[in-house]
Amino acid sequence: MKLTRLFESSESETINSLDQEEFVELAAKHKALLLQADDGAEPFSVEDFAQLAESLSLQHYEYVGGAAPRRLIPVKANVEVFTANEAPPDQLIPFHHELAQVKNPPMYLFFYCDRPSETGGETALIDSTLVYRYVAETFPEFTEKLKTHGARYRRVLPCEDDKESPIGRSFYSCYQVENKTDLEKKLNDIPGLEYQWMPDGCLEVITEPIPAIRMIEQQHNHGIYQWTFHNSVIAAFIGWQDCRNDRMKSVCFGNNEEMDLDVLQSIAEFMEENKVSYKWKKGDIFALNNRLVMHSRNSYTGPRRVYASMFGDVVASGKVKRDGVGQVMHDFSALRVSDPTTFGMWRLDNPEEIVYDAILAGYRRFDSACDYGNEELTGKGIRRAIEEGIVKREELYITTKLWNTYHDEEHVPLALEKCLRDLGLDYVDEFLIHFPISMEYVPIEVKYPPEWTVSHLS
Questions:
Q1: Distance between CA atoms of 452 and 172, rounded to whole angstroms?
Q2: How many distinct helices (H) and strands (E) make up the chain?
Q3: CA–CA distance from 132 to each of 137, 252, 398, 449, 455 (Å)?
Q4: HSE of 50 in the Cβ direction (CA atoms, 13 Å)?
């Protein structure tokens, strides 16, 4: 099959298969992927789509809390495939993270095109980290309020699905219940959520405060550490409009303070100006990292059939993980260090005391290297902090680096072992290539660190 990284290139590459580990790495690094059948082969069918999703062993995700009516598409694979939002074709569906208005949104989102529209109908994408940077730089006070208070969403739900509305999902379908008694029990179990029955039998729901700015730290041992504009604020402001709902009243800060409508409009315009639109072809599959990517739908003409499937995190595969030199990795706990701020050890006068004081001050990520020439003293400071109970080894994230003279395959393990001995550690959390420049090998016993010159060998 062919794979295209949608945010980076229009060029595709051929891959033989896609297993769980490869998919998670691609989704963490590249965020949005396009999968297609090989040239000359039949386009993927909906069954192919469902089987691919099933093969990745992702956690089942129940579609509860969404606004859009959907129909279940029968497939043989043990996954749920729905119609995508079936809002009228003349309506644009604004940018959003899928189900960002609930506490625990899906992690991965898949789309499949069974029939492309005659005109328009593109599924447009935007990098949520790009949106966050724009909002944080342009509207810092607004951003700080979102970080502090989150957002609350207001929606009036009908008792039956309203197919003429992009947010017309009934309260029975939305909350997966069959009667009002069960519905009220489910709503009452959500702290902070408010609801009331309307005279016409509809249900008004105001959600509990939901986080709206999220730091995505790591996904299945892939460090990300990026802030995202992870919410449905703009989707609600632009798109939650029908005979029951007023989009201008659809969202507020988590402390019930009103949001500046001009700020919301500016954010919506930025998204529209910076979106990546892709024209569907029959059999195309999108695989999106829903924590990092927002999507929308352009208006269209002619029939259009696009299906969707959503999932949580991966189901553990039990596969043995190995690092770059083949050593089995037993513990990934350090990858969960919450603060990405890193303390650099380059050219420090008293590294033992400085690293100890840094740990005491709260730093947990440290950048070291063979070339810094101070790893023995750095290691002493780290071990001292551990021995005194200030920190546990698994609470630290230690990086060191491979110097230019050790790039040959046979020399990489020697260089890593030397760094570990100097640091006095059993493992490091990250082993980077210091520079992408290979130099003549210098034996450790001849000169260490080797530095940039090899004149001493002549």
A1: 69
A2: 11, 25
A3: 8, 18, 28, 41, 50
A4: 17
Edge-to-edge order in the sheet of strand 397-402:
342-344, 365-367, 397-402, 430-433
Question: What mean pLDDT comes out for the span 134-152?
Answer: 95
Beta strands in 37-91 (DSSP E): 58-60, 72-73, 81-83
Alpha helices in 277-391 (DSSP H): 351-361, 375-387
Say how far apart CA 312 and CA 317 lie, in whole Å: 15
Banded model confidence at residue 457, pLDDT cuts 50, 70, 90 = very low
Among 432, 397, 398, smallest CA distance to 415 is for 432
CB neighbours (10 Å) of residue 223? 19
Place of tokens 């499937």: 309
CA–CA dist 9, 28 (Å, integer): 17
Per the CB < 8 A criterion, the answer to whether 135 and 143 are in contact is yes
Mean pLDDT of all residues in 134-145 = 95
Average pLDDT over residues 166-187: 92
Q: Are 116 and 92 in contact (CB under 8 A)?
A: no
Q: Which residue has the tokens 């995505």?
A: 216
Nearest by Cα to 50 from 309, 313, 290, 306: 309
* Residue 37 near residue 283, CB atoms below 8 Å: yes
Burial classification of residue 83, based on how many CB atoms lie within 10 Å of its CB (0-12 exposed, 13-18 middle, 19 or more buried): middle
Instruction: Check residue 349 and give its pLDDT.
Output: 86
pLDDT tens-place string over residues 31-64: 999 999 999 999 999 999 999 999 999 988 887 7
Go through 353-379 and write b for each residue having 16 or more CB atoms within 10 A of its CB, e for each that does not: ebbbebbeeebbbbbbbbbbbbbebbb
What are the pLDDT digits (tens) for 3-41?
999 988 778 889 988 988 889 889 888 899 999 999 999
Pairing of strands 430-433, 397-402: parallel
Contacts with 256 (C-beta within 8 Å, 6 or more apart), sequence order = 152
CA distance 454 to 458: 8
pLDDT, tens digit, for every residue of 317-350? 544 343 433 343 444 444 445 566 899 999 898 9
Integer Cα distance of 46 and 439 in angstroms: 52
pTM: 0.69
